[in-house]
Amino acid sequence: MTIANYNFVNPEFFLLLLALPAVGIWYYRRYRERYPTMDMPSLEGIRDIRSWRARFRVALPIMRALAFTLLVIALARPQESLKEENIKAEGIDIVMVMDLSSSMLARDFTPDRLEVSKDVAAQFVDKRPYDRIGLAVFSGEAFTQCPLTTDHGVVKDFLENLKCGILEDGTAIGMGLATAVNRLKDSESVSKVVILLTDGVNNSGYIQPMTAAQIASQFDVKVYTIGIGSVGEALTPVSVRSDGRYIFGLARVEIDEQLLKEIAEMTGGAYFRATSKEGLEEIYSKIDELEKTEIEVTTIRRYSEEFYLFAALGLFLLILELLLRYTVFRALP
Hints:
By secondary structure, the protein is of the alpha/beta class.
């Protein structure tokens, strides 16, 4: 028996509610016997002498009936549940690879390239509710920040906490890609995708980008590459002070677009260039449209016990009714 999103484990207890009409009739007859009517020629003289206790005493049986109803609902053991159903959805394993080199703090995006990349990536995660998504980061070295998971809240938390300076500076594109491929190589998903975002030129790491691309191709991993950065010059970190703060200066935006295009072409992906936040959002939207594989997903039914509230309210009303009946509304025999 289900009402809205509530499921009742023991609905047979609702049969107890059939006793309410019988109790109501009994109470009415008993009331008539205890308080008999008296015929009078006119009530004008006593019309306004009825006390407030007499006016509100009628609420006592209503409170008891409501308390009884709430306790019966508690006995029926209501549970709030998620609906279980089979649906068709797009399920893909995706690893996002984020560049954390100091140049990602360039201010040609507001407030900088890294913050915009994090925000747009989080929006993309929200659009893929049935995908397993992971996160890898790189600068002069690379590591997995978050393994593949369907818990997208965790992925977004890791994205939010990304910052430059946690790794040795540099741009090891090959290392970042190889780390992502390592997470996907044993996946049984129909489609395996890497979204690699960088703003520079490969200048470090012991795995060359094209070598990592060849490995990706062997494991059927499709790589979408994104070059982020405006055209021309941008206010970019050029050195670091002794206290760890960056010194900014104008520097030419250099992105190895040819390399990123070759990686994408070798793996069956595509290369995109983002020169603004709006452009980056459009790129992720295109990738979202391109990567759709229909699978059947079964959502799991989970329950949370909800009878505590009904039991507590029922007991409260019952105790309150008894207190009022034998104190404020006490009637002398």
